Structure prediction request, 381 residues.
Amino acid sequence: MEIYLDNCATTRVCPEAAEAAMNAMVRDYGNPSSLHKKGLDAEHILTAARKEAAALLGCAYDCVYFTGGATDSNNIAIQGALAARPRAGKTIVTTTVEHSSVGATITAMEKRGYTVKRVAPRADGHFDPYDFLDAVDEDTVLLSMMMVNNEMGTILPYDKVIPAVKKRFPELITHIDGVQGFTKIPLSVERLGVDLFSFSGHKLYAPKGVGGLYIRKGVRILPVEYGGGQEKNLHSGTEAVPMIAGMGAAFSMIRKNQAAIARNYRELNAQLRARMAEIPGVVINSPADGCPHLLNISVPGVPSEIMLHALEEKEIYVSSGSACSKGAQSSTLAAFHLPLERVRSALRISFSRETTAEQIDCFADALREVTEKLRKVVGVD
Ligand code: PMP
Prediction:
């Protein structure tokens, strides 16, 4: 039986989301821009989903904009915020461990003339909030940081940094890539005071190709592409009603089960840590206080890809680094100061609401077996 432990890459769509998406395709298939009843029905689906997202974000529903996923949200947030502030400062503050949808967008802005300061984790792998406060100044137009790192599970100190930065520089735009922390860590974007917050549907039991962006009331963003003016001009094109309906239903399911899902992650994480500690040669890379839905480990001497495919033969699916880097050696793990041998042999195990204790035991047994075999083959004692 297959054991899927790569839920940070993507999750299986939950039945509620699949049903909602299907209904929006075959029953409520109108275009939300149409003035007749079919259009209105589709518009109602969008509003209901917006309210579901807003309930989890802790904001008013008209602050939620639907996008084609978090990559889209991050581009709209960063490029749109800068485009709306041509006369503001020219410095962007970010981190060395961002997902490429933020990292590459900011590098593109750097090529257009912005100065970029990238805050790095300290030697222990944690970020110091004061390093962000030291990096921002009068010339800073944008601070963009992730909520939870997608490879390590490290929780960034956004809850300290954002309020402190906004207090000192109220005009400075703050953006959080919330993909890996959203719904997993209690959140109210309004209370936090962040200006922009990106999230993705497919990491949260919704279909792929849909996500959203929270924009604080009064924060101006210019569109990065033009068309029919949907989503108040920020994401033109006929709305992906089936995907959005699916995301709304998935968010509703999460909201009803949030405490139980969180408990499951914590228990699985503790169990997996204990099992990994029993296997000689396995080291845990994730911090003890990381987000519990993922655990990054290494088996020094056994390259990630070899281990990944050996586990795959047992129908166990894990990740080497992040799915987006397609097997490329992780620059993020190196940025967290992991030694090269650990980077080369890193595996990311990530849970969903459906992951069970039995599955973790099966994975641990398989990892022990494969480790013993492979370490003999590659000659590591
Ligand atoms: N940011 C982070 C932290 C992510 O983990 C991902 C997905 N790997 C993204 C952004 C991109 O999300 P999407 O696939 O919805 O574009």
Remarks:
- The CA atoms of residues 205 and 258 lie 13 Å apart.
- The mean pLDDT is 96.
